[in-house]
Amino acid sequence: MTGRALAVVRAGALTTVQDRGRPGHAHLGVPRSGALDAPAAALVNRLVGNPPGAAVLETTLTGCALRPRCAVTVAVGGAPCPVTVDGRPVPWAAPVRVPAGAVLDVGAADLGVRSYVAVSGGVLVEPVLGSRSTDLLSGLGPPPLADGTVLPLGRPGGRHARVDVAPQPAPPAELILRVTAGPRADWFTPEAVRAFTSRAYRVSSASNRIGLRVDGPALERARPGELPSEGTVLGAVQVPPDGMPVVFLADHPTTGGYPVIGVVRTPDLPAAAQALPGTPVRFTAVRRH
Q: Can you give the pLDDT at residue 49?
C-alpha cells in the first residue's frame, strides 16, 4: 500500500465507507446503499476539493479516530460534533489540514446521528458494481471499519474550499415526512390511513441504515394474509404485522411482502438519517406531481 493511506485508531459504534451508492441494480436484488445524508456527504467532499461522488466515512453517534500516513485535508460535517487533531480543537464543517501521523478525533455527535468525514483524494477502497459503499444488508462493499483498518486514499484533485465554516441544516427537533399514497394503501382500514397521516409517532431506537422504525399508533389492516414479494423503492413505508411503519432507507431490501402504505419524498430522507431515537415524527399526505 502506498503512503497515501488512513489508519483507523478508533472505529466507533458503526463507521462505514459511503459514496453515492449503486442505484440501478434492484433487478439483481442489490440495494442502492450510499450515504444516508447525501447532502452532508457532498458538502464535506466539496470542502476538501473532492468531486461530489468521492467516498467518505459515515460515523454513527460515537464518531471515530483516524491517523493519516500522509498530510491530508479533512472536513467533518453532518451531525455536529467536537473535532480535534492531536487533542487540539479544530473547526467542524470546515477544511482542516492534518499532518502525517497526527490523530484526527471525530467525537460523539452533539446533535443528530451521523457525521461525515471527507479526506482529500477520497477513500479508495475497491469498488463493487461501481460503488465503494458499504451495504449492511447485502454485505457488498468493504466491511464496517474496525480498529486497525487501513484505508487507501486517492490523489487530491482540487483545492479545498476557502471558508471558515459551511452552514448545514440542524438535525430535526421534529421530523416531518411528506408521503404520497402507496400501492397497498387499500390493505388498511380508513381509520388506519387517517391515523398514519394525522397521529404523532416517534423514532425508534431499532432504526438503522435499512429503515427508520417508529413507535406510535399501530395501523390496522383491512385485509388479512400477506402479499407475494414485490419490488420496493427508497422511501417506501412498509407495515409489518405489528402495525408499526418502517421507512426504507439506503440499504433497504429491493423486494418485500408487507404492504406499502405510502412513499416518503426523497428530499425528506436526509433529515430522517439524522433523527435521534425519541424524535417526534409526522407523516404528511401530499399529492403526486
A: 94
